[in-house]
Every structure is written in C-alpha cells, then in structure tokens.
Amino acid sequence: MNDDDLVIQTQTLVKRYGRKHALDGLSLAIPRGRIHAIVGANGAGKSTLFRILLGFLPASSGQARILGVDSQQLAPADRSRIGFVNEEHTLPGWMTVAAVTAMQKKHYPRWRQPAFDEVIGHYQVELGQKVRQLSRGERAGLNLALALAQSPELLVLDEPTLGLDVVAKRAFLESLLYSNAAGDCTVIYCSHQMEEIERVADNLVILERGRLAHMSAPDEFCERVSLWVADIPFQGPPPETVPGLLQRQQLDGLQHYLVLDQDEGFADFLRSVGARSVQSMPVSLDRAVNGFLAKHHAAPTELRHA
Amino acid sequence: MRELWRAELLRFRTWAIAAAIVHLAVLGFFARLVDPLQQPDFVHAIVAGVYFVAGLLLGLYQMGSYRRPNAWLNLLHRPLQPGRIVAALSLAAGALLCLAVLLPLALLVLGQWAWTARVVDLRHAALPLAAGMIATGGYLAGAIAMLSTRRVAAFALVPPALWFASQANGVWALAMQALVLAWLAAWLRVVFKPDLTAPPRTAAGQVLAAVPLAFGTYVLLVMASLGYQLGWMVVGSHPLNGTPPEGGYVQASRAESGELLLAGLAGSGHAQAPLWRQQVPLSHLTSMAPEVTVYPVAHALTNPTLAEFDDAENRRRYTFSHDAGRFLGVNPVNREREGVLGIGEKQLRFPTPPLLVGDGLMATAQALYRYDSDRQQVDVVLELPPTETLAASPAITGEAVMVLSDQALYLYDARAFRAGTGPLAPRQRLPLPLGGARLARIDLMELIDGELVSITVGRGSIDGPGEAWQSVWHWPARGTPEQVARRDLAPDFPLLLRHYEWWVSPLLRHARLALVQLFAADNPLQAGGPHQRPVAAWLAAGLAALFAAAGSLAWGRRQVLGRRARAVWVLACLLVGLPGLLAQWLLYPRRDHA
Amino acid sequence: MARTRPLMIQIATGDARPISKQIVDAVRMQVATGGLAAGDQVPSVRGLAQQLMVNPNTVAKAYSELTTEGWLESRQGLGLYVATPRQRLSDAERERRFDEAVQRFVNDVVALDIPAADVQARLQLELRALRPRKRA
To answer: Does C13 contact A284 at a Cβ distance shorter than 8 Å?
Structure first.
C-alpha cells in the first residue's frame, strides 16, 4: 500500500517501562478514510500508542508515523490536521464556551463554523456558559464540535463516550456519523463498548498485549469465530489438543468451545474424541472479540494467532 | 497566542487582585510601624523570600495543572509552536505578578516619597522592579521544576540561589537578576516540549540544564563535608568541640590575650623576651579583630545595616540619603523634614554612605567621623590613605586609641581622639604583613617605651585553605618596629578537608566565586587572594577528575546518549570533576527505562 | 411517481448476524411480505443509517448486496428502488438455499418433539398467511 495513503503507520514499535512492555513490536498500518475501531483490554497499550504517535512519549525502539510524518517531528501545521478527543474532554473550565470557540477559531486555519454549529446544535449548550458549568455530556459534545470544526484529516477518539448517559452518547454518535463535518476525515475510534463498535466501525483493529492481534472488517472477523457445543463424556480433550481454541466452558455437563477458523472439520474432530452430539452456531461480534482477547486466560499454552 | 495569554490572565485574575489588595494592606500596616525602605539587608531578604515563594507557588500550580498527561496533550497538541504557548503562559503569569507584587510596592514607594517626610532615594524606585523580578524568578523556577523530570526538578532553584549569594549592588544587582531570569526563561523554553520524559533536545538546551545541575551538585557535595564533621563530633575528636589541639590555629583564636602572647614569645630568642614574658601577667592587654566585612555601596537597593540614628537631645532622627549624600533629619513629633547633616561646617557630601558604628561614630572606608550633638555637626576624626580601608571600630587602650585598617595598625592619642578636633594624625603606624582579609586578631601589650603587638593571621583557615601563623612585634614609640618572634600555627582540620571545596572541582569553585563577584565592586576586606594548594590537594583533584571521567564513560553507555554527546560529557567530567558526573547521571534517563 | 417508503426494520447489536446481513434480511422480508412494493423508493443510505444509528458504510454495503442479488435497482440520479420481481437467483442457487433453510428448520424443530402432522399444518398456515400479501 502506498505510504501516502496511510494515516497511521508503526513498525515494530516497542515501549518499555523497566521490564514491562506497554508496546511489544506493534506493526500497524491504518489506511486513509473510513472509521477504524481499535479494541483491546486495558493495558493493551492504546493510550501509550497514541501518546507515542502524537509525539508525547518516545518509543523505546521502532518507528511511528502519523499522516506520513515521523511522530517526534510533528510541526504545528501537522498538528492542525490531527484532532484528538479523549474521555476526559479536557477544556479550560474557567472560560466561556464562546471564548473557547473563539480561541480555537483563531488557532485553526481551516475552521468551519457551519460544522461547529451543526454539531453543537445537538446539545443544550449556550455560548455564555462557563465550561465548568456544562454537564459531562455537553462537554463531550462541545469537544467533538471543536474537533470536527477544525476540519482534521485524522480524528482520533479515545473512549469519548465513557461516562456519558444514554442521551448524550446517542447525540455524540449521531454527530460523529451523520454530520457533514465528519464526512471527509479518517476516524480512529477506541472503545470498550462493543455495541458502539459494532454500529460505528468499518475496520476493526484488535490490540493485545502491545501487539496487533487482528485487523479486518468486523463481520469478516466475526465469521471466523464459531461456537460449538458438544456432549463429551468425562472432561473432554485437553485444551492444547483442540485446534483453534479461544475459550472453553463446561456448562451443565456439555462442553462449549469457542474456536477460530474452524469449519465442518471441527465436528469430525469432536466426534473423534468421543462427542455424542455436536452443534455449532455463529457468534456476535461482542462474543467473538471477547473470546479472542480472553484466549490467553483460558490456556496460556495456546497457539498464537496474528 | 494572545487568546491563550488572555485566557490564562482570566484564570487567575481574581486571585491576583485579591493578592494585590492584601499585599498593599500588609505594606501599609508595616509602613505605619517602621520605615520599610530603610530596613537592613536581612529584612529585605526575608521579604524577597516571600515574593520568591509566591512566584514559585504560582509556577508550580499553573504548570502542575497542565502537567497531567491528558491536560498536557490538550495544551500542546495544537497548531501553535510550544515556544509561543509557554510564552503566553509565562507572560500571563508575569503580568499577574506585576499586579500582585510590583504594583503595591510601587505605590508604597510613591506614597512614601509624596506623602511622608521619610527619605526616599532614586534607588528605592528600583525596589518594586527587583521584587517583580524575584517573584518572576520564583515563578520560572517553579514552572521548570514542575515540568522537569523528578531528578532535575529541585535544581531549578540553583539559578535564583545566585541572587542571595551575589555581591553586586544597585543597578548591577538588577543586571544580575535580569541575567538569571534570562537563563531561567531559556531553560523553561527548552523543557516545554510534548515529551516531558526526555531531556532537552538540543545541545544548547542540555547545557542550560546541565550547568545549574553541576553547580547544584557541587554545592551539595561541599555541604556533604558537614556530614563528615558530624561523624567527627560523634567520635569526640572534633577540634571545635572541647579542647582544641595544642599549637593550633583554633587554640590561638580562642586564647586569652595573655596566653597568646606568652605562647608567641615562647620560642623567641630575643634578649628582652624573658622580661616581656614576666610582664605579660602584669600588663594591660587589648585585643582587636577586624569587624567590618562590607561597607554600604552608593545607590545599593538596600542597606546592609541601619542607616539612621536618633539625636535625642535635639529630638531629631537622621536618615542617610544616597541621593543627597547627607543625613536628612526628621522631627519625630510633627513628622516634618528638619535639618541636613553633611561633613563639617560646609555640609559636604559623604564620599560613600557611612556605616554607623556607635557612640556617634560613623565610618566610611577611608575615614572616621563623629557627630557632635551640641553643634549639630559631623566632624572628621581621622582619615586613612586612599589605599587603605578601615577594618574595625577603634579600641581604646589606656592612653592610646587603636585603629585597624586592612594594611596597618595605627595608634592615636586618646585625649585628642575624644576631644575630636579636626582630622587627627596618627602617633604610630605598624604595617601589617598580610592583607586585612586574613587577619584574625591583634593583641597589644603596653610597654614603657612602646608596645608589644601579636599579630595572628589565618582567618578562614579552620575549614579552608591558607596558612596560619602568629608573629610578635616590638613596636617602639619612635623607630621602626621589629619582629621578635614568629611561629606557625598548625591546621586543626585534615588537609584534604580544608582544601575539599577546591579539589572536588577546581573549575566550579573558581566559577562560583567569579559569579558571586560578577558586577560587584572590589572589597579589600574580603579578598581571599589565590591560595597555595598543596600537592596532596592537586593529586586529589586529579584523581577525582579521572574518576569522574571514567564514571562518565561507563555510565554514558547505559544512558540515552548519542556517541558525540557521550564524548563531550566524558571531557566535561574530566574538566569539572564529580559534579559533572552527577549532573550527567541526573539529566539523562537510562536506556531500558526510556 | 414513486415516493420514498419508510423502511420499518430494526437491527440489534449483539446478534450473531452482522448488521449488514440483518438489513439485507429485513429488506428481503419486507419485499416478500409486501411491506415494500416493486417501484417503491427505499430510504437513502444516510437516512437509513441515521434511522438505525449505524455507520452509513454498513447500509451502503447492504444496499449493494441487495442490488447485486436483484432485490433493488439503481435509477440514475434518483436513488434506489425496489426491483420488479423476476428470477433473481439461478435454479441451482434457489435449490441450495431452499435445502439449507429446510435443513435448519428441521434441525430446530426436531428437538421439540412435536408430531410431524402438527408441524406440517403449522407450516401451511404460515405460508398461506404470507401468500395474499405477496400478490399485492
């Protein structure tokens, strides 16, 4: 893929804190356009990744480029093309909404007032209010409006709806998905909430333990995972011998296997280890991702799937 | 950038206004009790400390609020150069400190000048500016400390510490403040970057941080010798605790005049020595030591000691004015100006601001004056040659008055001295063998035909460099003085400890002295002069430098340092010694922790 | 003149079927039961996405699949419309899908232990209920 088309590119990015690895050889290439969702357990390295990409943390080794520019060499002009929103929605509490907006307008050369008005229109925010008087949801909306009105080429959202009530969350997603403001920018969306991810993502990126575990469209990923329920006498086969195993549960005497990349041949395998009945079904994205991330907890000696 | 500046001003506006009001109120309160502008140095130092801490707290708080990773990202991830962002924040803080610190002080000075009879010189107009700069320095130090890595943070206080040590006066003191502020501002600029965990990027930036680190660690190393002394005390053999060793300088400096004379004469082969030894317990002995360390400098911002005195009989309070070069009197009852005191009938200007030494006496470097309250006039008592400096207040010994300059001891007729008629001529003059800065004490015994004088040299040699010795002179009333005995005084502290301040880093020691003396006027009373360093000290210095260079070589590999930088640091450690190694350790993070 | 008919469908997150598949199935169901007639204009990609609160690209993907299969047709400059019913699938494909559906049904129902006669009767009832609307 042409490097110019990559908004985020890392090559074997490593970040160490003493013996702990926040990022362990992460090689990521995110193309321009669309909405990319990044999921991963806490400690998978998402915050560290963004801090490195934006130049706020040095990498221990490896390369990181954002919008084609090396992360440690970002100039103010580059920063004007990248928007960043996180769950804190940090805004100066002592200023009024109008003053904050005016400051942003002055700083960003490609400010689009109609975009701002459109997004802020979803919320009950008055220009004369002080930012500290806004509710969390209103602050989130203001933050998003400010970010989108900048006309960024890349917009990174790190758990932006965390702690928002249902109404605010919906308003936020609506602004993000349907306003003209977000039309032509690449969006990176980090979240724990699979419900949101399912609605929002064009591309699913799974980070695990500081590495890239998977990247594809969500339904493609989902198709790879299936749930098999079998009635096997005694304990069933030892976990290491089960091909593509992600998670194993024993419920009411039946063995439940969540597996990756297995087809009808898995049924034969189960019967070969003594299953009396075998059934399979597809799973939801939520379950698939959880299973994928949990596989190391199930059996640490499993094969690794990249 | 202006929006950011305005936003930051808005943020602290209420606090600044409140602080300004409180400040003004406190100043007004104290102005009713005393004359704030005429307070001695140490009072001003304390007040300056308060302003410094106020600025420091502002810096810590402001940058502390932005330092959290999320807030920092929000502040710096915008299309604005970090230099402009930090400029906006600091200029806002500067404006706030102007409002809270400078303005009330300016109002005070103005108010005193316009509405009271108190003495307000042009130099006082610089005090609000100085206070503003001190507060700003505190702010910059606090900001730097908050944004630096934990190891480096405390050393942000090193540049401002120079202010308290500097000997510069008046306008030059302001220049010194400006220099330090420039350094701090540049340091803040190089620290203010997206990645707060890394040291400054450019070589110049690293120098800005490394120099205060090196000086700071140097001072800490020097202070560590106190730990050594503490251990010594615990063991019980510390020379300053309990009985000092025989024949040593400490013993000499503490001895009674008689004991000292006897000890001095003990090794004398002079014919009259036994006679003198017999006379010692029977004679009148006077001891004298240099007292003055520094004279007031014209147009200094503050006074080293009180510069006002009361004339109780005529009910006047006289305060010295640098602009007028004379004392200006104020009637304490109706608080109005009354009377001017210059020198003599013609009320001439004092050449430099005088030091009040008590008993109506006042001294400048070359002359002693006395105020006569009957005639309400200041008369010249005696004058020294222009190359000499008065080192102590006169001591009366029987029929003579001893006057000590930095180069000679004079005897004046006591009666003439008390009568105070015109500039007196000395009866006798004894040149002193060494400049006044090293003179420890003088002990004088009156003889029939003159005096016997013991001169002990070695001030500062207890825990510092320099030789100490005692010489005894026969000083006839007429004729040349003759040295009759001399003995060396043994140092009480071990040699390496005495020269420690030098060998731990010769370069930094000289640099520190140079900085402290930068822009300062020469002071013959404090000139230490270059010292002879014994071979052992040279060896120690060399070994320490080699050790530091080796340490730099070994440690540099484990740090995040490029090859060329590593080489530069090895060289620097060789030149600067241990403080350089410590600075390198503090500044750069380890490779695996990066 | 065709007017935009509202699309009364729902999607659910946490379902085993991806959202685009749910939309495809729902549209097919609507056409099959007569909720959408041939010639009706379906909502725009943006409009349906906003209604369902999903990524417009997902709706675009569903519409594109429906168009490929022949359920919808694009009229230049005007939008997407329900296509006239004709053979959308090849015989082999129809046979295969029928087979699949029957297998699924049989598998699900067999466990319930309901007499085959009842099953058949129920089936006939359901199909008869669908048929009249289909003709409309």
So the answer is: yes
Task: Compute the residue count for chain C.
Answer: 136
The sign of the torsion formed by the CA atoms of A39, A41, A47, A52 equals negative
The single-letter code of the amino acid at B288 is M
**Angle ∠(C42,C47,C52) on CA atoms, nearest 5:** 100
- Nearest by CB to B79, which of A16, A79, A91? A79
Q: Report the domain count for chain B.
A: 4
Instruction: Determine contact: A57 vs chain B, CB below 8 A.
Output: yes
CATH 1.10.10.10: which residues of chain C?
Answer: 19-82
Q: Is A173 on the interface with C (CB under 8 A)?
A: yes
B329 in Cβ contact with B313 (< 8 Å): no
In a domain, B399, yes or no: no
What is the C-alpha to C-alpha distance for residues C52 and A182, in angstroms, rounded to an integer? 18
CB B568 within 8 A of CB B538: no
> What's the distance, CA B214 to chain centroid?
21
Residues from chain A contacting residue C46 (CB–CB below 8 Å): 178
- Quote ipTM for the complex: 0.89
Is A132 in contact with B40 (CB distance < 8 Å)? no
The yes-or-no verdict on residue A294 having pLDDT over 90 is no
Q: Are residues B386 and B254 in the same domain?
A: no
Could you tell me if B41 and B26 lie in one domain? yes
Report the residue from A35, A195, A222 with minimal CB separation from C55. Answer: A35
Task: Say if residue B177 is in the same domain as residue B121.
Answer: yes
**pTM of structure:** 0.88
Handedness of CA C14, C18, C23, C25 (dihedral sign): negative
- Looking at the fold, whether B193 and B208 belong to one and the same domain comes out as no
pLDDT confidence band for A44 (50 / 70 / 90):
low
- Structural domain contains residue B424: no
Q: Please report which residue ranges of B34-81 form alpha helices under DSSP H.
A: 41-67, 69-76
B483 class by beta-carbon count within 10 Å (0-12 exposed, 13-18 middle, 19+ buried): middle
Q: What is the pLDDT of residue A305?
A: 45
Q: Which of B390, B416, B439 is the last residue of a domain?
A: B390
Same-domain pairing of B548 and B482: no
Nearest CB partner across the interface for C16, out of A170, A201, A282: A282
Low-confidence ranges of chain B (pLDDT < 50): none
Q: Are B501 and B373 contained in the same domain? A: no
**Same domain as B213, residue B188:** no
Interchain contact, B81 vs A95, CB within 8 Å: no
Bridge partners (DSSP) of residue A158 are: A86, A190
Task: Please give the sequence-ordered ranges of beta strands (E in DSSP) within chain A, or none if there are none.
Answer: 6-17, 20-31, 35-39, 61-66, 69-70, 82-86, 154-158, 186-190, 203-208, 211-216, 225-230, 245-251, 254-260, 278-282
Q: Return the pLDDT at A33.
A: 87
For chain B, how big is the Rg over CA atoms in Å? Answer: 29
Nearest Cα of chain A lies from the Cα of C62 at a distance, in angstroms, of 12
Domains, chain A, in order of start with CATH, read: 3-216 (3.40.50.300), 220-298 (3.30.70)
Residues B108 and B192 in one domain: yes
- pLDDT for B584 equals 95
**SS3 label, residue B300:** coil
CATH class of C19-82: mainly alpha
Closest CA to B253 of B287, B217, B224, B293: B287
Min Cα distance C135 → chain A (Å) is 35
Q: Do B4 and A103 touch (CB under 8 A)?
A: yes
Contact by Cβ (8 Å): B434, B486: no
Which of B4, B79, B593 lies at the smallest CB-CB distance from A80? Answer: B79
Q: Which domain holds residue B272?
A: 244-291+429-492
H helix runs in B236-338, sequence order: 249-254, 257-266, 273-279
Largest CA distance in chain B: 92
Three-state secondary-structure class, residue B77: coil
